[in-house]
Amino acid sequence: MNTQTPTYRPMVETCREYGISRSVAFDLAKAGLIDTFRIGQRRYVYLDSLRTLPERLAAEAAKVA
After folding, report:
1. Each residue's pLDDT expressed in tens, for the chain with a length of 65 residues
2. What angle do CA 38, 55, 49 make, to 5 degrees?
3. Residues 6+ away with beta carbon under 8 Å from 7
4. Exposed, middle or buried: residue 18 (CB in 10 Å: 0-12, 13-18, 19+)?
5. What are the sequence ranges of the domains in the chain?
6. Which of 46, 43, 52 is nearest to 22 (CA)?
7. Strand (E) or helix (H) holding 45
């Protein structure tokens, strides 16, 4: 029996759970701010990249300011 938590999930559904719209999710992926990969036609996101997104966005904002 595998009781490990998943390290990735489908991108659109998972981002929606985090309050991120589909278009913003694809923009974040294109900018390299969240780590994604494809299996066939479906795009998946690594959960760690979503969990650490607020810290990385704050760091990016600090660089600009």
Report:
1. 667 888 999 999 999 999 999 999 999 999 999 999 999 999 999 999 999 999 989 988 898 87
2. 15
3. 46, 47, 48
4. middle
5. 8-64
6. 43
7. strand 42-46
Pairwise CA distance, residues 64 & 59, whole Å: 9
Report residue 51 as tokens. Answer: 């969990």
pLDDT of residue 4: 81
CA 19 to chain centre: 11
3-state helix, strand, coil in the chain (%, to 5): 50, 20, 30
Q: How far apart are CA 47 and CA 61, in angstroms?
A: 22
Question: Which residue shows structure tokens 């659109």?
Answer: 12
Three-state DSSP at 41 gives coil
